[in-house]
Amino acid sequence: MKDLYHVCITAHNEVLGRNPDDMRAFTNLMALSSYHSDTQIVADSLMSNHAHFVVMSDKPEYFALLLRLSLTKHFNHAHSRTGRLLDKKVFVSKLEGTKHTQMAINYVLRNGLHHGQSETAFAYPYSSCNSLFMTARGLELPKLITDRAEIRTYFPKNAVIPDSLAVDSQGFAARGTFEELRMAESWYGTPNSYIYNMNRRTTEEWINEQKSDEVQTDPVTLTVIENGVNADSEADMLKNEGGGRTSVYNKTDMAVCMLVDNEMLCRYHTDSIYRLSAEIRREIAVELIEDCRVGAVQAARCATVPVQCLPPVYLQKVRKKRQ
């Protein structure tokens, strides 16, 4: 029997999407993983070092496993990398109750906003947020590529692709062809209710609303959804709800990675940061901090070095920020 779950996969020390091609692969492999695990995706948000999903499934861990394996294979091939990419532990929690589920969907769709990657939930491009109530919100439906031969060029060789799956003009799997968008919309009822929930501030009211479910589970909160991610403090995420991005996020992870890959690596005569020694990658991280005003944790992540390897002066700033 299928139930609703929140699923979160993480890669604490690395960036999963160093460029738009990586995020396209992430989206397309998500679609294939849902198909091959007989999992229905209700909502998703693909972040730079983790991803959230609300799914209907009887084997959510298998869905996460397929996605982790296929994404690792893509990323390692694309960036001349070896080894495991994502963390072994997958965070899975069962969702019960109408309001509990709605709050989980809210937090998933607003993830780009909470992590300071966009000024609004709707401005973050790598989630299903903009796929709901599109016509009612005056949005143009994406132009789809339906030619099977052309679609195949955006997926791994020999991949089994369902006939129902189509891609948009940029090769991203169209969420309307593989996600349960109507199911997600049913938790809001109307476009106005959906827009309100995507823009409302997180308050104690969110917890109080869930009491009406009368289920024996703890309320779904921002801390619960982000359990295991450890990317930002709750205070920073709540601050980002108002569109007030902190200095760490003047640049997105992808923007920093593309700066490294497209401009810095040429001096080392390589096209992959993974071909460089740990010492050179550490030097790149320091350069990002000192010359590009990138935060220490973000710089370490984008330069693929453990944050603990940074000079002590930067570690002190990290510890102070986390206190």
Give, in order, the helices and strands: EHEEHEHHEHEHHHHHHHHH
| Overall strand count | 6
- Overall average pLDDT: 91
Which regions have little confidence, pLDDT < 50, spanning 5+ residues? none
Shape: globular
**Given this structure, which CATH class of the largest domain is correct?**
Alpha Beta
Q: Percent range for helical residues? A: 40-55%
The CATH superfamily of the largest domain bears the name Transposase IS200-like
Major β-sheet annotation: 4 strands, antiparallel
Second CATH tier, the architecture of the largest domain: 2-Layer Sandwich
Neighbour order of strands in the largest sheet: 2-3-1-4
Describe the structure.
The protein is of the alpha+beta class and 323 residues long. The chain folds into 2 domains: 229 residues, Transposase IS200-like (Alpha-Beta Plaits); 76 residues, no CATH class. Strand 2 and strand 3 form a beta hairpin.
